[in-house]
Design a protein that fits this description.
Elements (H helix, E strand, L loop, with lengths): L2 E12 L2 E12 L3 E5 L6 H8 L7 E6 L2 E2 L4 H7 E4 L11 H11 L4 H14 L15 H12 L6 E5 L7 H16 L3 E6 L2 H7 L2 E6 L2 E7 H6 L13 H10 L5
Helix pairs in contact: 3-4, 3-5
The chain binds adenosine-5'-triphosphate (ATP) and magnesium ion.
The site of adenosine-5'-triphosphate has 11 residues, from helix 1.
Length: 252
Amino acid sequence: MDPTICTQDLTRTYDGTAVVDSVTLTVRRGRVCALLGHNGAGKTTLVRMLSTLTRPTSGIASIAGHDVVTQPDAVRRHTALVGQAASVDERLSGRDNLVLFARLRGRDKASATARAGELLERFGLSDAAGRPVRTYSGGMRRKLDLAAALVDDPTVLFVDEPSTGLDRRARRDLWHDLRALADAGTTILLTTQHLEEADALADDVVILRQGRVVAAGTIGEIRRLAGEPRMELREPSLEDVYLTLTATEVTA
Ligand SMILES: Nc1ncnc2c1ncn2[C@@H]1O[C@H](COP(=O)(O)OP(=O)(O)OP(=O)(O)O)[C@@H](O)[C@H]1O
Ligand SMILES: [Mg+2]
């Protein structure tokens, strides 16, 4: 099957420094791919290029076969981004936010209202739907952010740091929601600094260090990278692999 997300030597430089450096990756339909890396590794920049918000300096990237530079409108139709910062308006109610997002995506008022109602129900926000978002908890805001991204059932969903600021319970709920979306066929690329999150949620893992891919594969393959488990020792944890790959000079 064609990969839904595909990049080849994708690069973005700022002031002559490559912050995303020759990244080649593919993510197949319905997979959850975790982009793992420290602060400044280039995760957000990569996601911004894939969602047409930042122009690549060189290399190519496509979403569902559409090139991010030459076919940005098609890419935008297929994608949605839940950013690191909330995209909803604090002063509006949850319902009004969702109606607004659906209208911006081209729905008429009746259809936007109906879609908002469906999403509020699905994310357990119906009771709070009429309250301004500033009265919502962090977990409720994150759910609303996700709901806003789903007004048009995107083919590919980008989620930048899904669980920042969430407590364990809210994080579990969010993982459950994301998993259900992927099982229904949405391709998800999430960025995270939390190994636990990648481990719990991802089918595939890409580890970035200073803009470069230092490891990529299924979660099982990445764990095995640390070497064969020695007899008396536990299997290498994802954390062992991650710390090794991101802390030491890696020669290709
Ligand atoms: N518009 C910009 N102008 C200049 N430098 C930028 C710009 N955007 C990002 N950078 C730099 O690119 C590097 C990668 O940033 P990016 O936000 O992609 O990292 P990240 O992996 O998402 O980090 P975090 O985990 O902190 O969110 C950083 O050094 C950052 O300062
Ligand atoms: Mg970031």
